Amino acid sequence: MKNKTYATTKEILINAPIPQQTRTYKPVSHEQLMNLTLESIQHAGFDLDKEIYTSSSDGQIANGRFTISNVTDRDMQLQIGWQNSYNKQLTLKFAIGAKIFICQNGCVSGDYGAFKKKHVGQVQTFAPTAIIEYIKAAGDAFQRMQRERDAMKNVEITNRRKAELLGRMLIEDQFIESTQLNIIEREIKKPTHDYGAQDSLWELYQYTTFAMKEVHPRLWMDRHIQTHQFFVNEAGILVEPSNQIDFINTPHEQLELF
After folding, report:
1. What is the pLDDT of residue 115?
2. Angle between the 217-234 and 138-153 helix axes, to the nearest 10 degrees?
3. Tell me: the pLDDT tens digits for 91-123?
4. I need a labelling partner for 141 at 20 to 30 A (CA). Which of 96, 99, 119, 237 fits?
């Protein structure tokens, strides 16, 4: 059976009906997020490479991913992403990540500048401020992810260790599903790509994100953040102070940081 794809276009998301604003719900449009992200990328001195969009429920849930061409190394490039919804199922989320060249896998570092915001209070005026400020610091986030990648490449793992980690991801932490486990198993036996670090923690990380390529848009960002944190912890990497932005919030303007 052919895999379901959630890829969509910018035009479809822009034309998705925006719900009516109420006293307790204030939507942020997909178009506003697109424009603000692109403007912020330019103001930060970054060069846009590609815009990638996925959606479900006829545009009610959407993800935007923006790769940067002038923040790269041999393996990966900077990627900035957001998640938005019109059906009140998800908070507005923004995070810094990376895109792997060889396989187009995505990595999302959720504890460095990422935030989530409910669609209440002054979210329309809050979101632009937060997005502009931490996109400026995205280069620092990319350097941190480079260090994390290098550390993972230096951790060799046996087949028994791989089995243990996969079991924890499936049963204990529950951020992969049985269908994804099957894909990872196939990659271990016959890899689709060479990640330059055979039998390493980094290689297993890439097999995992490879298996998550068609994860539902509602789950995409959270699952990738969970995955990244899981492998960072397994590498024994000392968590550095995150570059989170401090905001003075009113009682109706609470910011939750990952």
Report:
1. 56
2. 60
3. 888 889 999 999 999 999 865 445 566 666 555
4. 119
Q: What is the pLDDT of residues 129-143, one digit of tens each?
A: 767 777 888 888 899
Return the HEC string of 98-122.
EEECCCCCEEEECCCCCEEECCCCC
Distance, CA of 235 to CA of 152 (rounded, Å) = 6
Query: What pLDDT was estimated at residue 132?
Result: 78
Burial 193-228 (b: 16+ CB within 10 A, else e): bebebeebbbbbbbbbbbbbeebebbbbbbbbbbbb
Please give the DSSP secondary-structure letter assigned to residue 19.
P
Please give the backbone phi and psi of residue 63, each rounded to the nearest 5 degrees, phi first. -125, 140
Who's near 72: CB < 8 A, 6+ residues apart?
A: 78
Element (H, E) at 226: helix 217-234
Q: What is the mean pLDDT of residues 138-165?
A: 95
| Residue given tokens 């930060």 in the structure block | 44
Please tell me whether residue 133 adopts helix, strand or coil conformation: helix
SS3 18: coil
User: Whole domain around residue 11: which residue ranges?
Assistant: 1-258
The total number of structural domains that make up the chain: 1
Residues 6+ apart with CB under 8 A from 146: 73
Helix (H, G, I), strand (E, B) or coil at 250: coil
Give pLDDT, residue 43. 87
